[in-house]
Structures are given as structure tokens and as C-alpha cells.
Automatic annotation (TrEMBL):
The keyword Glycosyltransferase does not apply. The chain crosses the membrane at residues 12-33, 53-69, 76-96, 102-124, 136-158, 164-184, 196-216, 222-243, 264-289, 301-318, 325-345, 357-376, 457-475. PROSITE patterns: MFS (PS50850). It comes from Priestia veravalensis. This is MFS transporter. Belongs to the major facilitator superfamily. EmrB family. Residues 11-480 form the Major facilitator superfamily (MFS) profile domain. Its main location: membrane. It is found in: Cell membrane. The lineage of its organism: Bacteria, Bacillati, Bacillota, Bacilli, Bacillales. GO terms for molecular function: transmembrane transporter activity. Gene3D superfamilies: MFS general substrate transporter like domains, Multidrug resistance protein D. InterPro entries: EmrB-like, MFS, MFS_dom, MFS_trans_sf. It comes from the Bacteria.
Length: 497
């Protein structure tokens, strides 16, 4: 798809809606897991596969999207992805048993994995560099607002309807998008002579799949489990072999030489750190609100809603500001706000008010809205157009892996520190009372220890954000001014060597 004077707004609109509902579905199920577990009669570890499996398929599929985007047309890819997603949604809504529901989620994920890299690539090729900020701001609205609003919508639906309604609500929207795409997407593309390297695909599955499964299982099974460290070792070996293989291929499945571009490499490093830190609020706040404070799922979701709305409002504005001022100013301001609010989250207690939580979370999301898309767009802007599919696939893959690593790290810190604080509080109670703690006191100690463990995790998260803040100071604005076509050609030749 070539850059045109007038961007294809119709195509972009359809892709945005498809990407929105696919991302919404990623977090929509989280609050419903206990209901599904009870109705279908499965264990907690088994029902978690509905989210773990979805994430795994995404992590395995996304690295292949660079090849798919180069090989096939936007129309063909989007129709295939949307058909898979719609089929999975319909089957999930009527699934009679857990196995069918899990298979439906896998089908959903295989379609959803293609949509985000495809949308990002269309935006990059449809707008000149000096206007990409505004376009990517809209993309940021989809990328962050959809998952953020998922728990609120899910909490309301679960409170009033059966969990199947989560799929029934999405089904008609998916059908409408599929029909519109069939009639309105007219994108044509010349046949590209590029073949998928089967060994690369196998190594990618073992590499990214092993890492994602290992780290996502660590919080539940513990780092001492063979299942955890065994799959992480397999993942590391698979990833090393996969990267080595890509450097040997003339047309690699995923191009790692794009890290030769310094701003792309820097933006990737910052994004990894931010994604790890971002998961602190998404994981730890629901634990604190529901487990430690006993607040209902609906109220938990409503607590996150103002932050999601602020993020939605700010994303397009941030895009325009990026076009005017560049990424560094926005990133430094946004990370400073995010760092301060994350540190304030490390001071939670059993008496922190609901209003304080809303204000803090909303302020944190305001800071976050100024960070992710400007950093990512600045890095992608340095890549020549032919490497856009590889850049978008790499960004999405790194987000999946760093999200899993961040989750595992923060949950482990929380678990270990909760145990530590429980022992310390029990010793303190014994020294004061000189008798065995009562059941009520033990419960109080457990809740207080959990809060302290969550606080320690937020503290680690705030340190990660400081690291990202320091890295962001080295960002430089990437522009097209002063770069001739000859210089671009020289860069491409240097890149190929």
C-alpha cells in the first residue's frame, strides 16, 4: 500500500473498529473467570487458560505478521482475521463445555493477533512522517482505551447477565465490521514473491511461546517449578536460534537488523520497560481493591473508568502535540507524572479511600497517555517504509513478551513480600500480646501483609519508570527535512549489508 495524498479514511475506520473489538475482548473475560469456572466445573488454574491461551496465540502469531503484511493485501488479511475472530466469538457464546470455549478463544486470538500490526502498518504507509503523530494518536486510543474499558463493561454485564453475554454483545458488531469490510475494502496489491521459512516459524513458536508460557505461569506455579523454568529455557534457546536464523536469510520472517536504527532501538527499550511497569496497576490494583478491600467487581471496574476516559480523550491530543513538539518533551513529562503517581500507589493502606484511588489512577493514566504512542511512533519514523511491517511486528511482539515478564516479576515480588510481611506482623503481634493471634487478628495480619506486598511491587514499578525516564532523555526527533532520496538509498544499502 503506497503513501497517497489523501489517506484511505474508510479503510482506516473499518480497521480501527475491528482492532477495537479484538483488543476489548482481551480484557473483557478477566472479571468473568470465576463465573465461568463455577458454571463449567473447572479449576482456577484451568480457567486461567482462557486468558493465557489467548495471550500465547497472540505472541506466536504476531511475529508472522511482517511476512503476512508483505505477502497479502490489506483486504485479504483483514477479511481472514475478522472471519476468524467472528467465528471464535460465535462459538464461545454457545460453548457447551470448557474445551470448546478454549478452542473458540484460540480461534479469536488467531484473528485478533493480525489486526493491530495490520492497522499500524496501514497508518504508517498512509500518512507522511510529519502527520503520523495525529494518526498514531487515534491508534493509541484503540490500543489503550479498549483494554482499559474492558473490566468496567465486563463488571456491569456480569452483574446483570450471564457471562455468555460478553460474547453475544461483541458478535453483532463483529458481523457488521466483516460485512462492511467485504463490500468497502477495495485495496489491491501486486503478488509479492516471498515465502515463509518454515524453520523460522517453528523456532518462533518455541521461542516466543516458551517465554510467554514460562513467565505467565511463574506467578501461579512459582519459579521453582520445572514447568516454569523448563519452558523459559526452551524459549530462550528457541529465540536465540530464531534470531540467528533471521540473520542468515535474505528475506527473514522478522527483520532484526532494524535495531541498527538508533531511535527505533531506543524506543523499543523504553517501551519494554514501560510495558513491564504498566502491568503493575492493571494487575495489582484489582487485587488490592477486590481481595484486600472487598470492593465488588462492578465498582472495581468503575474505579478504572475515569482513567480510561482520560486516556481516550488524550490519545488524539497527544498525537497532535507529538507532530508539533516531538516525542522527548511528551515522554519526559508523561513519565514524570507516571513515576510520581506509581510511587504514591506504593503507599496504600487499608483505609485509603475510593476517591483517592480514582484520582491517583486517573492521574497515572493521564501521564501514560503522553508516553507510549509518541515513543513508539518516533522509533518507527526512522525506519524506511519497506521495513514498517517488521517494525510494527517487532513492537507488538516485544509488548507481549515484556508484559508477561512484567506480570511475573511483579506478582513474584508481591507474593514473596506478602509472606515476609505476614511473618513480621505475626511476630510483632506475638511480642505485644504474648498469646497466639486470634482468627480475626490473623485475618487482619493477612490483609495488611497483602497490602504491604502490593506496595512493594508498586515501588519496583516506580523504579522501572525512572529507568524509562532516564532513557527518554536520549531521544531525538526523527524528521524528513534535510534527508534526500539519495541519502535514503544510501541508508537502505548500508542496512542491507
Amino acid at each position: 500500500m503506497q503513501t497517497t495524498k489523501k489517506p484511505p479514511y474508510g479503510i482506516i475506520g473499518i480497521l480501527l473498529i475491528g482492532a477495537f473489538i479484538s483488543l476489548l475482548n482481551e480484557t473483557l473475560l478477566n472479571i468473568a473467570l470465576p463465573s465461568i469456572k463455577n458454571e463449567l466445573g473447572v479449576t482456577t488454574s484451568t480457567v486461567q487458560w482462557l486468558t493465557t491461551g489467548y495471550m500465547l496465540v497472540n505472541g506466536i502469531m504476531i511475529p508472522t505478521t511482517a511476512f503476512l503484511i508483505q505477502r497479502y493485501s490489506v483486504r485479504g488479511l483483514f477479511l481472514t482475521a475478522m472471519a476468524l475472530f467472528t467465528t471464535g466469538t460465535v462459538v464461545a457464546g454457545v460453548a457447551p463445555e470448557f474445551g470448546v470455549l478454549l478452542a473458540a478463544r484460540v480461534i479469536q486470538a488467531s484473528g485478533a493477533a493480525i489486526m493491530m500490526p495490520l492497522l499500524m502498518n496501514v497508518l504508517l504507509t498512509s500518512f507522511p512522517i510529519e502527520k503520523r503523530g495525529g494518526a498514531m494518536g487515534i491508534f493509541g486510543l484503540v490500543m489503550i482505551f479498549a483494554p482499559a474499558i474492558g473490566p468496567t463493561l465486563s463488571g456491569w454485564l456480569i452483574e446483570h447477565y450471564d457471562w455468555r453475554m460478553l460474547f453475544h454483545v461483541v458478535t453483532p458488531i463483529a458481523f457488521v465490521v466483516l460485512v462492511l469490510a467485504f463490500f468497502l475494502l477495495k485495496d489491491q496489491k501486486e503478488k509479492v514473491d516471498i515465502q515463509l521459512d518454515k524453520l523460522s516459524l517453528i523456532l518462533s513458536v518455541f521461542g516466543f511461546g516458551g517465554l510467554l508460557y514460562g513467565f505467565s505461569s511463574a506467578g501461579d506455579k512459582g519459579w521453582g517449578s520445572l514447568e516454569v523454568y523448563g519452558t523459559i529455557i526452551v524459549g530462550v534457546i528457541g529465540l536465540v536460534l530464531f534470531i540467528t536464523r533471521q540473520f542468515k536469510l535474505e528475506k527473514p520472517m522478522l527483520e532484526f537488523r532494524i535495531f541498527k536504527y538508533p531511535m527505533f532501538a531506543l524506543s523499543s527499550a523504553i517501551s519494554i520497560v514501560i510495558t513491564m511497569a504498566l502491568f503493575s496497576a492493571m494487575l495489582l490494583l484489582p487485587m488490592y481493591v477486590q481481595s484486600a478491600r472487598g470492593i465488588s467487581p462492578l465498582d472495581s471496574g468503575l474505579l478504572l473508568l475515569p482513567g480510561a476516559l482520560v486516556m481516550g480523550i488524550m490519545s488524539p491530543i497527544t498525537g497532535k502535540l507529538f507532530d508539533k513538539f516531538g516525542a522527548r518533551v511528551l515522554a519526559v513529562i508523561g513519565l514524570a507524572i507516571t513515576g510520581v503517581t506509581t510511587y504514591m500507589f506504593s503507599q496504600l493502606s487499608l483505609t485509603t479511600t475510593y476517591t483517592e484511588l480514582i484520582i491517583l489512577y486517573t492521574a497515572r493514566m493521564f501521564g501514560m497517555s503522553m508516553v507510549m504512542m509518541p515513543i513508539m511512533t518516533n522509533g518507527l519514523n526512522q525506519l524506511p517504509q519497506q521495513f514498517n511491517p517488521h517494525g510494527t511486528a517487532m513492537n507488538n511482539t516485544l509488548q507481549q513478551v515484556s508484559g508477561a515478564i512484567g506480570s511475573a516479576l511483579l506478582v513474584t515480588v508481591m507474593s514473596n513480600r506478602t509472606e515476609f510481611h505476614a511473618e513480621e506482623l505475626a511476630k510483632e503481634a506475638m511480642s505485644n500480646g504474648a498469646v497466639a493471634p486470634t482468627a480475626d487478628l490473623q485475618q487482619q495480619i493477612g490483609l495488611q501483609a497483602m497490602v504491604e506486598g502490593i506496595n512493594d511491587s508498586f515501588l519496583i514499578s516506580s523504579i522501572l519508570i525512572v529507568v524509562a525516564l532516564v532513557l527518554s532523555l536520549f531521544m531525538k526527533r526523527v524528521t524528513v527535512s534535510g534527508v534526500t532520496q539519495d541519502q535514503q538509498a544510501v541508508k537502505r544499502e548500508q542496512f542491507a549489508k
